[in-house]
Design goal:
The protein has 425 residues and is α+β, with helices and mostly antiparallel strands. It folds into three domains: 3-172, no CATH class; 175-245 and 324-413; 251-322, no CATH class. The protein contains eleven helices and 16 strands. The strands form six sheets. Strands 1-2-3-5-4 form a five-stranded antiparallel beta sheet. Strands 6-8-9 form a three-stranded antiparallel beta sheet. Helix 8 runs antiparallel to helix 9. The relative contact order is 0.10. The protein binds adenosine-5'-diphosphate (ADP) and magnesium ion.
Length: 425
Amino acid sequence: MEPGVEAGKDSQRQCQDYRGGALGGDLCEDLCEAGQLRYRRCLYYERGKKVLQADWRGRPVVLKSKEEAFSSFPPLGLLDGQPEAGGQDLPEAELLALAAGEARSALGLEPAEGGLGRLGLARRGPRRRGQLASLWALLRQEEFVLLSLLRGRSPHAPPVLGSCGPFYAVEHLAAGSPGHRALFPLGPDGGRRGQARAVSGVALSFLDMVRHFDHDFAHRLHLCDVKPENFAIRSDFTVVAIDVDMAFFEPKMREILEQNCTRDEDCNFFDCFSKCDLRVHRCGAQRANSNLQRGPLSPRVLFPPLRGSCRCTWRSSPSPHQLGSVVCDKIFRHWFSSPLGSSAVSGPLRGQLRAAVQECAAPGTQGAPRVLGRLRSLLQAVLRELRDGEEPRPGVRSRLHGDPHRGTPGAARKAPAVFGNHPFE
Ligand SMILES: Nc1ncnc2c1ncn2[C@@H]1O[C@H](COP(=O)(O)OP(=O)(O)O)[C@@H](O)[C@H]1O
Ligand SMILES: [Mg+2]
């Protein structure tokens, strides 16, 4: 079936339920009555999880739900026996307590004071029943809860724009993929220099993101599934974590890691590792590696049987290449490890970058802040070198020097060029 036709059927089903009062949300009116939200195509479908591309009031968005069918989510018991247009009299305190419980189990944290205010529990109106039922389906989606919490607090997380039924919308961005030679669609480039500049800009933003997730919240945010497909870039090269199903704040990370074990390998959860305490046969609650650096390779990984859930079972890993490793290993190594070829960047600088990335990606490396600082200054040196190699334009160079990677977005929008080489070769 044509992808557009399939997407059209999705919206018909959704709108039938909306008109019948079974579901709701602030985007339903635009989808079902005003024609302002149009599904375009299915981007991804696996085991019930659906990711759709759509246009909303002229902007490209993505709609996501962990379960395609609304009925797959457990219903809100309080609504039992309520009439179609009911739900008006449900006690707010009870609703709030239930919602707080859902958010707590999704995040492993007590939601901050007033943090549930933005969920619209107090909103009343003829469609309240459908709205509450939908909110319950949304609260069962850890990614929705986390992105709602991060809204306005992180340039590296996509803000939730609205919802209809179990689907929530985020902006559509240029997503990564191992199919891109530079891992991300960098757009029309300005030749090798343009590509090298773009890659350095994206790499610097990855470092900003790692620092931000490590330090800018009350609890460290751990990324346990680092691969290009789970990140996207904005036109100014800001990296955005578009798949946060496997991102956990410290308290939940500790809960996940603390399992029974007989050896260290039993304590690996995708890209997050801890160590087995052989005296008590318990994995340490403290993550042993970081968002930047990987831990020891292991022949086994932990697979969750349910998507986004943390109830886990053991399974053998088919290949060590599929094992978790983190930003330096899974993203940077691809860009900076090749010793071959000519480059837009000078040999010594390339060599230093390669060595720093190898050190960062190596198992068991200590001293993440030092490696991070070194990588940052090398990437800034690359951007300076690329700029210094250009024809000087009066007044431009000194301005860009002050803010090396923010000054480069134009690089990806120059004249299109077929890109024949790796950006750092
Ligand atoms: N905001 C977005 N912009 C563009 N593409 C997206 C966006 N969110 C998801 N995608 C695409 O859909 C794919 C699947 O979404 P993702 O959240 O990673 O699902 P899963 O948790 O099953 O891996 C992504 O790899 C990406 O290609
Ligand atoms: Mg993904």
